[in-house]
Amino acid sequence: MNKRDFLGEFEHIVLLALLRLGDRAYGVSVRQEIEARTKRDVSFGAIYATLDRLEAKGYVNSTLGDPTPQRGGRSKRFFTVTAQGTAAINRTHRVLLKMTRGLGLSRSLS
Amino acid sequence: MCLLNLFVSNENAESILGDLFEEFSALASGAGVVSARRWFWRQSLRTLASQFSVNFRFAPASLFGSVLAGFLLLRFGGGLSEKVIFAVLHRFPIYPNHWNAYVFWISDGLLIGRVFESIFVGCLVALVSKRRELPATTALGLAQFLYTGVLYFAALLWNGFDSRSIFEQSLSLLINAVAILVGGIIVKEIRVARSHHSATA
């Protein structure tokens, strides 16, 4: 299997955030979702760089929304996970489960 | 905002700037403008840094190649403007009848020539780097500044310090490094204008 078929840690987190947000996923909502769930302060640069990579791999699609005054007249770019992206998440998740089985790892965030 | 517009890729610039604006507005109405400004500066700098570094992480070979080619061009092809100026002065001797003009061309004229050479090399490197114009020209400008600076200060240590000379040379190094970046900005702006024109046509 190609090493490109498995997701990096941040790619995984971003794709999961997109799945959680559904059709509301854009830069601000993705950043806030990741920050709320992982307590990790991420930059828009890192998020968009990851989303660009995921789109190049075919795991994500993007569409431009209408410009809004709250954004200084700029459009939102909405992201959705493709079927290939969902398969990649499932593949990575199965591998993680296999690797962690029997290790007795804690479920807490600490 | 201007720096973000330059360093962030064209496809993402509008979205990232819009996101920053949206969160800034929300923070300003919630936590106050001072807190929102601090957040904005932190986010913008981190976004710049990650957008800059991602180009070197995911296309290192092509980017290093264009930076190296630009560096070698400046090392071995630089000084062409100097040769042209001296060739013209030799062909059309203005010394000693036009002393001021002669002094201008062999001092400031040479510096201006080097600046144009740097802008030209910056444009070439930006053209080759395609959508990574600013990271490539910034890296080249920095490499050129450090390399020439180290050589110059090594010569100073050997020959002795002269504070006026240090200031002038440092300024010249900085201007040439910025000129390389200007070349990158010129190419990027032309590319953006062309893509807007073809999108609206």
Task: Name the largest protein-protein interface in this structure.
Answer: A-B, 20 and 24 residues
- Give the class of chain A from helix and strand content and strand pairing: alpha+beta
Structural class of chain B: mainly alpha
Tally of contiguous helical segments of chain B: 9
CA-CA gap between termini of chain B: 28 Å
Describe the overall structure.
The complex is a heterodimer of chains A (110) and B (201). Chain A has 110 residues and is an alpha+beta fold. Chain A has helices spanning 9-21, 27-38, 44-57, 83-100; strands at 60-68, 74-81. In chain A, strands 1-2 form a two-stranded antiparallel ribbon. In chain A, a hairpin with a 5-residue loop joins strand 1 (60-68) and strand 2. The model of chain A has no long low-confidence stretch (mean pLDDT 88). In chain B, helix 2 packs antiparallel against helix 3 and helix 5 (80-91) packs across helix 7. The mean pLDDT of chain B is 82. Classes of the chains: A alpha+beta (110), B mainly alpha (201). At the A-B interface, helix 2, helix 3 and strand 2 of A face helix 2 and helix 3 of B.
Q: Descriptors for this entry?
A:
heterodimer; A: 110 residues; alpha+beta; 4 helices; B: 201 residues; mainly alpha; 2 domains; 0% strand; elongated
Summarize the structure.
The complex is a heterodimer of chains A (110) and B (201). Chain A is an alpha+beta fold and 110 residues long.
Chain-wise SSE layout:
The complex is a heterodimer of chains A (110) and B (201).
Chain A: H1 9-21, H2 27-38, H3 44-57, E1 60-68, E2 74-81, H4 83-100
Antiparallel strand pairs in A: 1-2
Helix pairs in contact in A: 1-2, 1-3
Chain B: H1 2-7, H2 10-31, H3 33-58, H4 60-77, H5 80-91, H6 99-106, H7 108-129, H8 133-159, H9 163-200
